[in-house]
Amino acid sequence: MEKENLREVKKYFEHIHSLVYATKNESLRNEHNKAYQIVYDMLNPKYVEKPLKKSILKKEEQIALLKRSVAEWNEWRKENISIIPNLQYANLQNANLQSADLQNANLRGADLQNVNLRRANLQGADLRDVDLRCANLQNANLRGADLQGADLRDVDLRCANLQNANLRGADLRDAYLQGADLRHTKRII
User: Fold this and answer.
1) DSSP labels for the chain?
2) How does pLDDT run along the chain (189 residues), one tens digit per residue?
3) What is the CATH number of domain 84-189?
4) Could you tell me the pTM of the whole model?
5) Hey, where are the domains in the chain?
C-alpha cells in the first residue's frame, strides 16, 4: 500500500476511534480497542516490533503504574492511545496525580479523596459515583466527563473545564468553583 493511502486509512480509523471514545458502551469500547491497536501497529512501524501483549496492562498493573509515577503513566498512555484505562473502584486516596492523562479513563466508583489532580486531563472520563472529597482539581480538564452521583464536597474546581460534564446527582457542597467553566453542563438539580 502506498504511503498516501496508509495516511488516509490511519486518518479515517482515528476518526472512528474518536467516535467510539465518546460512547459509554463498555463492550463496544473494548472490542474497538483490540481492533484499533492492531491497525495502529500496522500503520506505525516503530510499534511493530513491540508485542501487543506487553502494552496491555491488567487493572492492578495500571493502578500500580499510576501510583508509582505520573510521568511513566503518561508515557504509557502515549504509547497505547487506543487503550481505555480501567481504574474502576481503585483506591487512589491521597495520591499525587498532578498533570496525569486520564482521558476517557474508567474511574467509576474510585476513591479519590484528597487526590491532587491539578491540571489533570479527565476529558470524557467515567467518574460516576467517585469520592472526590477534598480533592484538588484546579485547572483540570473535565470536559464531557460523567460525574453523575459523584461526591464533590470541598473539592477545589477553580478554573476547571467542566463543559458538557454530567453533574446530575453530584454533591457539590462547599466546592470551590471560582473561574470554573460550567457551560453546557448537565446540572445537579
Assistant:
1) --HHHHHHHHHHHHHHHHHHHT---HHHHHHHHHHHHHHHHHH-HHHHSS-HHHHPPPHHHHHHHHHH-HHHHHHHHHHTTT---B-TT-B-TT-B-TT-B-TT-B-TT-B-TT-B-TT-B-TT-B-TT-B-TT-B-TT-B-TT-B-TT-B-TT-B-TT-B-TT-B-TT-B-TT-B-TT-B-TTPBP--
2) 455 666 677 667 666 766 766 666 766 766 666 666 666 666 655 444 444 334 678 999 999 999 999 999 999 999 998 899 999 999 999 999 999 999 999 999 999 999 999 999 999 999 999 999 999 999 999 999 999 999 999 999 999 999 999 999 999 999 999 999 999 998 755
3) 2.160.20.80
4) 0.72
5) 3-55, 84-189
